[in-house]
Design a protein that fits this description.
Helix content is 13%, strand content 38%. The longest helix is centred in the C-terminal third of the chain and has 49 residues. It has a five-stranded mixed sheet. A four-stranded mixed sheet has the order 1-7-6-3. It is mainly β and 804 residues long.
């Protein structure tokens, strides 16, 4: 464009002329087909793609489509082979009425580059409508005094077809008295009448029954029949006679209501009442004529009742009957032919079909925005239409075919300057006075997809208790995209990876639209303590852009495992030998148990259950060691066999427990065999080893719990110290206190810890940690809105979530 401006106006005009010439030659093609009405679905019409010079492979890429005025589902194009075929039933009489010409006008539109074609499909008439008489029976009253050769008008049949298919021939059933007389003309339909061939005698034949058959000229021929009931009368033997058989009138469609159309003149040779004439419309006059015209029965004046419309009906054929007042009455008929003259009373009609809305700001010059078609129902100069566009820049109208225009981009767009255009297309006819119509076209300038979705923070931490129900909502991620419309529609998905031997998608899922993260199955702390994965956010732009956020899901332990006894204390085992001579505090046996849980849930305590109805037992059990020892020196009053029941329970909520039964046999010093002595020494050494294992187990549980708390506090402190301006946070010395029913153990660590709240200065808090604490009342609300909770808590960078 810069080279053309420097080159001068001549080069630009030459280039524009060549462009318009190419568009006109490419878009002004016209193809004509014909198809018979009532053709079956799928009937071949024509190879439209081949006839328009289009390749079959480019029909879909160039967005080939067909549109038509009125009903658009009659014809369809198969994009695989380029064949135009019949899609639904075509009824020529319904589509065009009795018009001699009936065509379906199709508009074929392709893009890249844009082209426009006009296809005309002529609908051929077939003989699918039989002749129809308005009534099944026509009654005629004929006096016996009528002379031979007298004519008695009959109402003919109507055929909805055209051409040869509507050319009717009439036959009358054999009769000695009547023959059929047919009068035909070029412009009017055939006039039928019965001609009297034999003098009637009412006393001999008071009534005659004949049948009139109408046969059309189609192949095969179709017929319609009406019964003629003729009653022979006396006296009044002269029918009224019109001064002319046909009255011709030309009326402008703009004449006012009540205007006199014509005055009919008829005379009757009879005298008196038999010579008085009244005028009526024929019984076969359609409803639209009765609505638009009125006849005075006494004077024969026909006046206009409604408003004439040339575009709706160009002419009227009115059947008028003149009936005298004799007894019986006699009648005759004539026709009034009214031709309507056109006036410029219809404004042009505009139809805008948008193609490329909204328009990208990077659209090249010459891009087709919409197609505009204009029409005017008037004829001659009243129907000639021209189009104009305001404002002119940066668009213009290009004529592609008669009464068809393309709205194209004339100069480059700049969305930053203006993102919306309101265009007005004006169509004006050449009538006098001229009439016009306008149509508005809204053009939106769309942006390109240049912004990826972003998350508020790169990583979130979520706490979930194990044994959660399947489908539990554990977190909601949310990303924001700065683009508009579909470029800002964000969808979420998991970044798939393997977790051990299983896929990540078997553990969690994310809702594509809301970003809600769900646990698909119950999580097991003993199997999986930490699940780390990424959620991807991708917009709907072309090409799509995306980003990802990391979620750390910590699975918290619940007390879902009861203590398990270890042999030989698993149930009622074999008896233990105890010397009666042992003193107080002597360890005689040991109950061993383990718990698959962790933390408090795996911390076991032992309790000796009192025997029902028995004296106080001389034995006791260590609260955390499970060692059974004597509380006093044994004597002869103690039973030789002692049955002890030990309750082993953990510290979870609710606590789970199991019982162990220990059998002790009290023996004197001289009663114990040597083998028993060896076994006792071996048992004592084994119990000492188990005592050491139990102590180590308690130490390991405390160490693991302390390490977990220390890791979480250190992580929080590092994240909070990385963002010093995110809230009113100050240094503190948190103290971790773990308590139980029997005592407490504590752990403290000097560190900088930010505790952010909505009110007041930073505080140093005492933090109590207990895995079995009940959930807080607002925990579920925090899970639903992690972003809002982050804002209310001072915008601390790390995010924690607990799913209960």
């Amino acid at each position: 464009m810069l080279y053309l401006r420097r080159g001068g106006q001549g080069a630009r005009r030459l280039l524009l002329s060549l462009l318009l010439l190419v568009i006109w030659k490419a878009a002004s093609s016209q193809v004509h087909y014909s198809v018979p009405e009532e053709a079956k679905h799928g009937t071949f019409v024509g190879r439209i793609a081949q006839d328009l010079g289009l390749e079959l492979a480019e029909l879909v890429p160039r967005l080939f489509r067909v549109a038509s005025k009125g009903r658009g589902d009659l014809l369809e194009v198969n994009l695989q082979n380029g064949i135009l075929f019949v899609n639904s039933r075509i009824d020529r009489e319904e589509l065009c009425g009795r018009s001699l010409e009936c065509s379906i006008h199709l508009e074929v539109i392709v893009e890249r580059p844009p082209q426009f074609f006009h296809v005309e499909v002529e609908v051929k008439d077939i003989n699918d409508n039989p002749p129809v008489f308005r009534e099944r029976e026509q009654r005629l009253f004929i006096p016996e005094s009528r002379l031979l050769g007298s004519h008695f008008p009959l109402e003919g049949a109507a055929d909805a077809d055209i051409g040869t298919n509507s050319l009717l021939t009439y036959t009358l059933s054999p009769s000695d008295y009547f023959s059929l007389d047919i009068q035909a003309s070029d412009e009017l339909s055939k006039s039928l009448a019965l001609e009297l061939r034999k003098v009637l005698d009412r006393e001999e034949t008071p009534e005659l029954r004949l049948s009139l058959t109408a046969t059309d000229g189609g192949k095969p021929e179709l017929q319609g029949t009406v019964q003629l009931l003729i009653t022979v009368l006396d006296v009044n033997d002269n029918a009224p006679v019109f001064s002319q058989a046909v009255y011709r009138v030309h009326l402008s469609e703009a004449i006012a209501n009540g205007t006199l159309v014509t005055t009919l003149n008829a005379s009757d040779a009879d005298e008196g009442v038999n010579g008085e004439i009244a005028f009526f419309f024929g019984s076969d006059v359609p409803v639209n004529i009765r609505k638009n015209f009125n006849i005075d029965s006494g004077s024969g004046e026909i006046t206009l009742l409604g408003k004439l419309d040339y575009e709706e009906t160009k002419s009227y054929e009115i059947q008028v009957k003149a009936v005298d007042k004799g007894s019986p009455p006699m009648s005759n008929h004539c026709k009034v032919f009214v031709k309507v003259l056109d006036e410029n009373d219809n404004a042009p009609e505009l139809a805008v079909r948008s193609l490329s809305l909204p328009v990208g700001e990077d659209a090249p010059v010459g891009t087709v925005i919409a197609f505009v078609s204009v029409s005017d129902r008037d004829s001659s100069a009243n129907g000639q239409v021209t189009c104009s566009l305001t404002p002119h820049a940066p668009f213009k109208l290009v004529s592609t075919f008669k009464n068809y225009y393309s709205l194209v981009l004339d100069s480059a767009l700049d969305r930053e300057k203006l993102s919306h255009y309101e265009l007005v297309v004006t169509a004006r006819d050449a009538g006098s006075p001229s009439l016009s119509a306008t149509a508005s076209v809204s053009v939106e300038v769309a942006d390109v997809n240049d912004n990826a979705p972003t998350f508020a923070q790169p990583e979130y931490t979520v706490f979930v208790k194990e044994n959660n129900p399947p489908g539990c909502h554990i977190f909601t991620v949310s990303a924001w995209d700065a683009d508009a419309q579909e470029n800002a529609l964000v969808s979420y998905s998991l970044v798939e990876r393997r977790v051990g031997e299983r896929a990540l998608s078997s553990y969690v899922s994310v809702h594509a639209e809301s970003g809600r993260v769900f646990a698909l199955q119950p999580l097991d702390h003993e199997e999986l303590e930490l699940l780390r994965f990424q959620v991807s956010a991708r917009d709907a732009g072309v090409p799509p852009l995306g980003s990802a956020v990391t979620l750390q899901v910590f699975v918290l332990d619940e007390n879902d495992h009861a203590p398990a006894l270890l042999p030989p204390g698993a149930g009622a085992g074999g008896g233990e030998l105890v010397w009666r001579a042992v003193g107080a505090g002597h360890v005689v046996a040991k109950v061993r148990a383990v718990d698959a849980d962790s933390g408090y849930n795996a911390w076991l305590s032992y309790e000796l259950l009192p025997a029902a109805g028995a004296a106080r037992s001389p034995f006791r059990v260590g609260l955390y060691t499970g060692e059974i020892s004597t509380t006093r020196a044994l004597d002869e009053a103690d039973a030789p066999r002692q049955r002890l029941v030990v309750l082993v329970k953990d510290h979870g909520e609710p606590a789970l427990a199991v019982t162990a039964t220990v059998l002790l046999s009290l023996v004197d010093s001289g009663q114990a065999p040597k083998a028993s002595l060896r076994e006792s020494s071996g048992t004592a050494s084994a119990e000492a080893a188990l005592l050491d294992v139990n102590v180590y187990l308690i130490i390991a549980i405390c160490a693991v719990s302390s390490l977990l708390v220390l890791t979480l506090l250190l992580y929080l402190a590092l994240r909070c110290s990385a963002s010093p301006t995110e809230g009113a946070c100050g240094p503190g010395k948190p103290v971790l206190v773990c308590s139980s029913a029997v005592g407490s153990w504590s752990y403290s660590q000097q560190r900088r810890q930010r505790v952010c709240s909505g009110e007041g200065p930073p505080k140093t808090d005492l933090m109590a940690f207990s895995p079995s604490l009940p959930p807080g009342p607002n925990m579920s609300e925090e899970n639903e809105h992690p972003e809002e909770n982050s804002k209310h808590s001072g915008n601390v960078s790390p995010s924690f979530k607990l799913c209960l």
